[in-house]
Structures are given as structure tokens and as C-alpha cells.
Amino acid sequence: MAGPVVNFAAENMVRRTPDHIVDMDPADLDYIRASLAAIDQAFGIAASPDIPLHLVPARALMRRLVDLRTGLKPETQEQGVILGRLAGAILRLDTAVAFDKARRK
């Protein structure tokens, strides 16, 4: 049975994230933006979306963060540290999603 290993916890997190824009604290958006920019530079890929983060639906942003976190393999210690920041970005978005769900009840 060959194929990609699925991270069920990460996939569940993506699936429970709503597919609409979620209001986020500006500091949280800045943290996520800085984390993606660091990935851009350290790994030489386009990790940041082409549109402003506050216009990206939460599920699309969560999918991007989770895919980067699970898909990139650091080759240097610096890349490992930068990749580790994505855990914080994912947590900030997940917290904003929880507040959004509580507000909508």
C-alpha cells in the first residue's frame, strides 16, 4: 500500500475551518504574513497568496498553512526554525476560527 501519508489531525483542522473570511486581529494577520514571507525567502517558493490575507477565506488559508507545514522539508537549521513558526500561524488562525464560530452562535 504505497501512497502519501495523510495527517488526519491536520486534515480535520482544515475541514472544520469555515469557507468564508474570518475576522482576525491585525497582530495575528501580521504574524501569519511574516511567517509566509519568511517561508518565501528561506525556501525560495511563493508561499504568500497573491491577494491580501484579510481577503482569503479561512479554509483556503488553513489549507495553505497546513500543506506548507507538512510538505516542506527543512535542509538547514534556519529553515527548520522558520517552518516551526507555521505552527504558531496555524494556531492563531484556528483560534480566530473558534472565536468566529462562537460569535455566530
Low-confidence stretches are none
The helix fraction, in percent, is 55-70%
Content-based structural category: mainly alpha
Q: Based on CA inertia axes, which overall geometry fits?
A: globular
Taking the sheet with the most strands, its summary is: none
Question: What labels describe this entry?
Answer:
globular; mainly alpha; 66% helix; 105 residues; 4 helices
Structure report:
It is built from four helices and no strands. It starts with 7 loop residues before the first helix and ends with a helix. With 105 residues, it is mainly α. The mean pLDDT is 91.
Question: Can you give me a brief rundown of this structure?
Answer:
This protein is mostly helical. It contains four helices and no strands.
Please render the helix and strand layout as text.
Elements: H1 8-16, H2 26-43, H3 58-71, H4 77-104
Helix pairs in contact: 1-3, 2-4, 3-4
